[in-house]
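Anyone able to model this chain together with S-adenosylmethionine?
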Amino acid sequence: MDSTSSPSPGSSGSPAFPITHPALSDYLIAHATPAADEVLRDLAEETHRTLPRHTSMQITHDEGAFLALLARLVGARRAVEVGTFTGYSSLCVARALPPDGHLLACDVSEEWTAIARRYWERAGVADRIELRLAPAAETLRALPREETIDFAFIDADKEGYPVYYEELVVRLRPGGVIVLDNVLREGRVVDPSATGSGDRAIREVNATIAADPRVESVILPLRDGVTVVRKR
Ligand SMILES: C[S@@+](CC[C@H](N)C(=O)[O-])C[C@H]1O[C@@H](n2cnc3c(N)ncnc32)[C@H](O)[C@@H]1O
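re: yes, here you go
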């Protein structure tokens, strides 16, 4: 959800606008299908237990189910994730790919992605996930400039979103989908006093996408705000 460079939702006081009412949060998770299985539940539990200060970075299960649903809807075979952490979203996306599918997972943390690797093995999807430990902008720029990506998820440092979006959209095949997380910044996108670098970068990428003739898009008030972008 949040990035290493920004305060974690919930850990820095109340959000400006609580998008998901706390009373509804568990209800949303309970009604997303398929429900989290033992592997996902264990991954969430281990992340909460071993990385309590970073727990809020992990996507919630309803968001994971949403990513998997979209990946299946577009028949994704080739996927990219920017921001892997301990692997919840990558596991959801990888499971939605066919056995010969490929997910390129981008992150900079060896420590956090070591946890992800264990759960990819346990879930039997390690062979379809390639982890690149490097700044994601470098990883994406090094990919061939061809329209081959079916599905991408952006959930890393917010300052990088404008670059991640541009590098991915030129490589997305027509009809392919990009999902961006945390695009409402707990409501700070509409708070003029919020001038942090992450807030400015998210406003920039939101404006870019809204004016981008290459795509159609909607911001959904799911969790901290999720943009779904489809390339024309
Ligand atoms: C919000 S977490 C990702 C959560 C993950 N999607 C999940 O479902 O658990 C953000 C991740 O972005 C990574 N990150 C931060 N800056 C990065 C960069 N420049 N390039 C690649 N990854 C980066 C962090 O190491 C962290 O693991």
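The chain has eight helices and seven strands.
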